[in-house]
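Tokens for chain A. Residues wanted.
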């Protein structure tokens, strides 16, 4: 179990045959313009080869150059529809059924309109909203809804990760790795594993505390999610009961049914069905077969 989740940023969909087998990680497509979202190949994403890589997830990374959110409502709708299709993919990165996307902290604030519209549309599609994590380069910039990035050219530079982040106890979050070639991803994953092993060897007590905290945090989030679902279900039942109780006529019918029919003995009810058959109001066969039409018109 890694103490952070590694997110490899790429500019195009990788060939799934290139992806490391048996590794648990995430890659994100770097997006500069809305048109690039529309250009994502859903057929490739729904290839059976990707479905077999259940431990590998994907997401979107809106880089610092992202711009040109269309003013035309039809174009906006096309982009939002495409995003929702991506979010419903079983391999899209989610946190308790909530899609997770990434946006560079240096992105223009004008793009907030886009993210607001995206959150509104997500709620209309039965998602909570969209978790938008701000990606920054310095730990001092971190907030509750942000994560860190490293711009690398080769796996050997990952010693920066150890010096800048692990020794400063950065854990239970995402680490976005920028400028990494797909063919080098196995090397990066191996180097990251070695770094965490080194940290575990040097500080075993701290490492174990981190893992315990991550497990407790995961359980807490799961319980919060389940509690929210139960609360919504309870509220729905209360609403239903209040509607029923507010209808006088419904109460009268319910009371009549309980007082005039439910209290009758079973033999009396069955005799009534037989009398309906004799009177020609009900078919004889319907007494023995529920699939047959009961009453004659």
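Reply:
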């Amino acid at each position: 179990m890694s103490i952070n989740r590694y997110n490899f940023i790429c500019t195009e969909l990788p060939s799934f045959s290139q992806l490391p087998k048996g590794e648990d990680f995430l890659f994100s497509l770097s997006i500069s313009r809305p048109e690039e979202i529309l250009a994502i190949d859903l057929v490739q994403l729904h290839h059976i080869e990707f479905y077999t890589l259940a431990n590998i997830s994907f997401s979107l990374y809106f880089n610092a150059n992202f711009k040109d959110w269309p003013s035309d409502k039809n174009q906006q709708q096309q982009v939002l529809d495409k995003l929702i299709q991506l979010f419903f993919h079983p391999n899209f990165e989610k946190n308790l059924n909530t899609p997770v996307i990434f946006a560079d902290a240096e992105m223009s604030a004008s793009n907030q309109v886009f993210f607001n519209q995206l959150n509104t549309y997500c709620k209309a599609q039965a998602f909570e909203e969209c978790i938008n994590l701000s990606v920054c380069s310095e730990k001092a910039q971190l907030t509750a809804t942000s994560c860190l990035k490293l711009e690398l050219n080769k796996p050997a530079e990952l010693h920066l990760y150890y010096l800048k982040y692990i020794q400063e106890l950065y854990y239970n979050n995402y680490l976005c790795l920028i400028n990494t070639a797909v063919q080098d991803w196995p090397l990066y994953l191996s180097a990251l594993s070695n770094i965490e092993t080194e940290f575990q060897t040097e500080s075993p007590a701290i490492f174990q505390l981190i893992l315990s905290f991550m497990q407790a945090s995961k359980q807490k989030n799961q319980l919060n999610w389940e509690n929210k679902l139960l609360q919504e279900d309870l509220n729905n039942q209360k609403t239903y009961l209040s509607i029923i109780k507010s209808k006088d006529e419904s109460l009268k019918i319910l009371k009549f049914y309980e007082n005039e029919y439910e209290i009758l003995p079973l033999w009396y009810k069955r005799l009534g069905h037989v009398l309906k058959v004799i009177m020609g109001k009900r078919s004889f066969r319907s007494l023995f077969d529920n699939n047959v039409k009961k009453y004659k018109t």
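The beta strands are 5-10, 25-31, 56-62, 94-95, 98-104, 131-136, 146-151, 174-178. The domain at 5-202 is CATH 3.20.20.80 (TIM Barrel).
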